[in-house]
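Async update (no meeting this week)

Hi team, since we skipped the sync, here's where things stand on the single-chain job. The sequence we agreed to prioritize is pasted below, unchanged from the tracker. I ran it this morning and attached the output directly underneath so nobody has to dig for it. Comments welcome in thread, and please keep replies under the output.
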Amino acid sequence: MKYNKWTVALAALGVVSLASAAKADEGLSSVQTALASTTLSGYVDTSAQWNFGSGNNYLPPYRFGGTDKADGFNLNVIQLRIEKPLDEQDWAAGYRADLWFGPDANVLGTSSYGWGNDSDFNIRQAYVALRAPVGTGLDFKMGVFDSIIGYESIESGNNPNFTRSYGHSIEPVSHTGLLASYRFCECFSASAGVANTWGNTINERAFNPLWSNDARAESYKSYMGSIAFTAPDSWGFLSGSTLYGGIVNGFGSSGNYGETVTSYYVGATVATPVTGLRAGVSFDQINIHHVDNDNWSLAGYLSYQATEKLSLHARAEYYMDTVDGGGTLLYWTPVGKAEVLALTATVQYDLWKNVISRLEFRWDHSLNGNHLFGGDTDDGNGGAHLKNAWMLAANVIYKF
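Output:
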């Protein structure tokens, strides 16, 4: 074995032995080999937000929004991803850990039971990835993984708009369990999984009576499945369009009244004959069993890549919350059912390398006459006195 001059000098002085040096070099080599295929990436997500008018005690309750971000500058979240992706081997193995830091980490709410959600830290995903040589390859994730349903991503930078939709806000965030995925062909794939609960609390159980007044049997688990179809090249301008459907059913966790919850999702992204123009549609519905609740959302999306750097995005959404006295997942003022139209327009211009920079205007409007927004005091009506909420926001994300 070849040693460097410093190792030889230390050996001559009796400080180290050549045998121990050889073992150290071998250990370092194995560590370097293990880390060679590991990647480190992430992003820093910031924003500035202005909510028109005063008295913003009640704002539209979509996920990662709220009064804490109104009328000021915000650090949203820092994500750090450590990953070894699956390679092309038959028995491939890898892992992913997505760590969140900042205020949005508290909203994510994946903290293990008893630790709370106000530490500015949470684990978004942490799973072991495996592949078995079955057919075209059967892939597994075991641990904590993102929900398999939804048009929009947990990562704001992967979405056409900065703010999230109501449909996204009533979907599960993540699960602790086992997920299997299989691609039957280039056009069709499917996933199926089992998890502890519908909710996102890591390692939560549906049968612990300390967590819920409606505990289930020890064998009670949550189940999920999804299918995806991608249009082949032979479909002309529709090539690459996708149709997706999924369902998640299980114990809704202590944060959702200890009830069984079923989530349904259908979504599609469609290419158009117009170069750079894509359209999308999504439908989300959630049913909390044994509660008079059946919230649902229907949203449409348009995205246009005007130039290499400039893109335009629009979203229109209708949301219905059927519960009198406020929703069970999204908190509205206690004035009855919520029926909302939300329109969002986003302009994105990628001026700097690795940076997403965009400006967004959003209008939320109460359709059924209830005053859902505004307010600065609790006057018995939640302080809300407005049917409309307007917001202008700038979002800057650096990806590394």
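Quick observations from my side:
The chain has a mean pLDDT of 87.
The chain has two domains: 1-36, 37-399.
Reply here if anything looks off.
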